Amino acid sequence: MTTSISTEFETEWARWHHAREDQLRDPLGFLSLTGLHWLTDQPERLPEVPGTWWVTDDKVFITAQPADRLEFDGAGIAGVRILTPAEGAPGLSVLHEHRVLEVIRRTGRYAVRVHDPAAPGLSSFDGIPSYAPDPRWVVQGRFTPFDERQTVTTGAVVDGLEHHHIASGTIEFALGEATEQVVAFGEPSDLRLLFTDATSGITTYPAARALAVGAVDADGAVRLDFNRATNLPCAFTDFATCPLAPAQNRLRVAIEAGEQHPRLGRN
After folding, report:
1. What pLDDT is recorded for position 267?
2. Can you say whether residue 130 is alpha, beta or left, with left for phi > 0 and alpha for psi between -120 and 50 degrees?
3. Which of 92, 184, 201, 259 could form a disulfide with 206 if both were Cys (CB 3.0 to 4.6 A apart)?
4. CA separation for the pair 187, 138 (Å, rounded)
């Protein structure tokens, strides 16, 4: 019976892991990034990007000629086009032939992020190194809601940027003899964690890993499956602006489960 349960657990994890790798193979996803260009109030040409770009009054201005082959919202850009990306949201997509020039706003700063399906990061991707799945890293926790939702501010992998997360409570759980308490983001119907642990910077990405927790049971119980701890996009590319884990979620224990640092090789 134990072997059967273990085999089923490993099969389910492998199915999830392969789906995760397939998601990363999106030809215009994070592995397709080839550049991140921060804009100023001075019109300038960006490396290998047509047109002229600048920021004025919280708006991104683009000037281009028809020969530049830039397109936004189904229409070519000829002359001046003004874009207003939302803070912290997915960017607005300016098309250039097979590439997407994603215009983003982060902590009041604006940038153009270049997605190219011919990116080396895509062609060289051969999977995500991970710890072998192990049921002992599936633990039960207890969710305690805040009286009111709180905003938790964290730093980012890019100096000077901030991320603002809505937190609805804390989760307490035990790993061996250690009891940990972390702040949980999202709503009780769909919680998630950003955390570091004693493996961070050694076998796992140092800034943070993410864990989808899901819904809280009626009695406050939650299930934490650290075998499904995932890397943020910044683990795969230098052109992401991911958050750091909040100070409350820096675990003392070594979570030897989930995805490892993809740029350190397999361990």
Report:
1. 38
2. beta
3. 201
4. 21
- Using CA atoms, how far residue 162 sits from 6, 35, 101, 113, in Å, is 41, 20, 22, 18
Class of residue 220 by CB neighbours under 10 A (exposed 0-12, middle 13-18, buried 19+) = middle
> Would the pLDDT of 172 be above 90?
yes
For tokens 């992998």, name the residue.
157
Residue the block writes with tokens 């499956």: 225
Q: Number of C-alpha atoms within 13 angstroms, CB side, residue 185?
A: 20
Pairing of strands 138-155, 162-175: antiparallel
Helix (H, G, I), strand (E, B) or coil at 228: helix
Q: Are 51 and 112 in contact (CB under 8 A)?
A: no
Which tokens belong to 258? 């989930």
With beta carbons less than 8 A apart as the criterion, state whether 171 and 260 touch.
no
How far is it, in rounded angstroms, from Cα 244 to Cα 170? 18
Q: How far apart are CA 101 and CA 52, in angstroms?
A: 13
Q: What is the pLDDT of residues 90-118, one digit of tens each?
A: 999 999 999 999 999 999 999 999 999 99
pLDDT tens by residue, 46-85: 999 999 999 999 999 999 999 999 999 999 999 999 999 9
Q: What pLDDT, in 10s, does the model give residues 225-243?
A: 999 999 999 999 999 999 9
**C-alpha to C-alpha distance for 50 and 111, rounded to whole angstroms:** 15
Query: How distant, in Å, are the alpha carbons of 5, 22, 108, 203, 257 from that of 132?
Result: 16, 19, 41, 13, 7
